[in-house]
Design goal:
The chain has 5 helices and no strands. The radius of gyration is 12 Å and the shape is globular.
Length: about 80
């Protein structure tokens, strides 16, 4: 039960004010997050504490996070939607 509660909490935190973020974060949470190593899951939690405007810039690849943990999770999400 606690896993489901945690997932639901993450789901609502993954829903942002911007459609562009929702279409990246929600599918990532549903499809990739459960299989991530704990370290990357922690990075996702850290990402959700960032400002939408910063995340938008990172996901549109206009800028990059200075924090290497955030850069890793941004890269994981981007690589899922636009594999090389």
């Amino acid at each position: 039960m606690s896993d489901n509660t945690e997932f639901n909490r993450l789901f609502w935190h993954s829903r942002r004010g911007m459609l562009e973020l929702d279409v990246l974060l929600i599918p990532f949470l549903k499809e990739a997050y459960p299989d991530l190593p704990k370290e990357d899951q922690a990075r996702y939690h850290k990402l959700l504490n960032c400002e939408d405007t910063d995340m938008f810039e990172w996901f549109m690849q206009r800028s990059r996070p200075e924090d290497p943990d955030l850069q890793r999770i941004v890269d994981l999400i981007l690589n899922r939607v636009q594999p090389d």
